[in-house]
Amino acid sequence: MDNKKREEILRLLEANARYTPKDIAVMLGLGVEETEKEIKQMEKERIICGYHALVDWDKTDDEKISALVELKVMPQRGHGYDSIAEKIYQYPEVESLYLMSGAYDFSVILKKATMKEIANFVSTRLAVMEEVQSTATHIVLVRYKDHGTTFAETKKDQRVMVMP
Amino acid sequence: MRDFICDKIKRIKPSGIRRLFDIANEIPDVISLGVGEPDFDTPWHIREEGIYALQKGRTFYTSNSGLPELREEIANYMYRKYGLVYDPKNEIILTVGGSEAIDIAFRATLNPGDEVVYPEPGYVSYEPCILLADGRPVSIELSAETEFRLQPEQLEAAITPRTKVLLISYPNNPTGAIMERADLEKLVPVILKHDLLVISDEIYSELCYKERHVSIASLPGMHERTIVINGFSKSFAMTGWRLGWVCAPAHLMEYMLKIHQFGIMSAPTMSQYAAISALRSGDKDTEMMAESYNQRRRFLMEAFAEMGLPCFEPYGAFYVFPDISEFGMGSEEFCEKLLKAENVAVVPGSAFGKSGDKHVRISYCYSVEELKEAMTRIARFVDKLRSEEKDKAKER
Fold first, then answer.
1. pLDDT class for B197, splitting at 50, 70, 90?
2. A27 chain-B contacts, CB cut-off 8 A
3. Shortest CA gap A15–chain B (Å)
4. Range with the poorest average pLDDT among A37-46, B13-22, B367-376
5. Residue B134: Cβ within 10 Å count
6. Rounded mean pLDDT, B21-33
7. Phi-psi region of B265 (alpha: psi -120 to 50; beta: other; left: phi over 0)
8. Among positive and negative, which fits the CA dihedral B179, B181, B185, B191?
9. Cβ-nearest to A162 among B32, B174, B299
10. CA angle B280, B105, B8 (to 5 degrees)
11. DSSP-assigned states of every residue in B5-21
């Protein structure tokens, strides 16, 4: 299958991971078996790394908070940033990790936790790593949009119901 | 008291869907597939320009034809997309939606009794607009056998000495049919032979799923005798902004402008500023929306194939037009029963001319999830009708 078709499959799955292979095949004008095989192949190649529900935790009783930590580090000879990244992403507390250009090196997004847990993790795990020069921790106040989806109330369809 | 209403208006039939609309509004949780407008919001960069226009106090009339810079953009767009050359100074007018463009085109060209031939099923406004302009509507009934494409023989057969205008609208509402270059080329000799004016409503031109839209005005000999109508509603999800445009050679445009300036003055100013952004930076939005419609179109075609409901494959606009003739009832009856039984609203084909009565129009301006649920319900309804039919046959 050509890359364009693969990307189309990925875009559909990214928008809605609950589409079945048949849904995707029909929408893209592909064969069902071929689509199923391609999805499996992309899972194997780790192009598709998982399927998740996008949850707006603010609407639940969960009172934990999310934090983003900026890290400035000293890269290691022969390993660059990769070995530091490896140390950081091993922690289950870390939800996402990005190497950034600009004012700092790593952006670490932490899993939801209590303020105390976040403070503890940053001070006892991240800040004390020998490669880490500085940290800056930001608390997420409100998530408005994530993975291309806005968390505002679903808008009512304002179109008139029947119109020729 | 005297009867103040003019006879002409009295003769115009009200929309065939009024009853259905009233019923649908009284039923909660109706899944409606009856809307002829995009489900996408107007892209943000366009809305932002509209807001900015208000903030900057750009709330005055524009020139009658519209903002010069917008007409310039339209001229570029028409050339870039369809190879059509129009002078922004005197060959383009911004109108209040494509609807006003249709109206002024008829009013500027028809004398009482002049005949307008047009393919049917077709958009509901055509016949009333022709009547309002004192013309005589002459419909040409098309069918799925010829993919709802107007055939030159059909055109030839419909022409009388009083025929002045051919109105075409491709991609078509309600059928989703398109006419490719070769189809249009076959019409040209007939048009030239009978010295017809063509009004070409191309409002769905950017929603083509097979190949790029070809405007009949781009064919040899057609530019000087064609009025092209287009607009922002469908391509840029801007229905509520009420902004369309009409392009025609200057010798025709002069008269359309008269009607527009005395009747409307000018199209909404903030909409025009927003529209500049649509034409300058909206190609990607249009492509994204068209691709999404195409996916839904395929989804519906598959759903109809699975339920065994015949439906010719449409390659344009955002409608499918399945054939319901096996159930032995008119389209209004079918739609009303479907609405009451399964809470799904679709539009009877009869609203688009009597040849449409074997069909219903289903819009796919809805999410795949909504379409999925609606198709499940329609399949259940169709099964029920079929089993009732079988039972009746047994009794006989």
1. very high
2. 295-296, 298-299, 368
3. 11
4. B13-22
5. 14
6. 90
7. left
8. positive
9. B32
10. 135
11. S-HHHHHSPPPTTHHHH
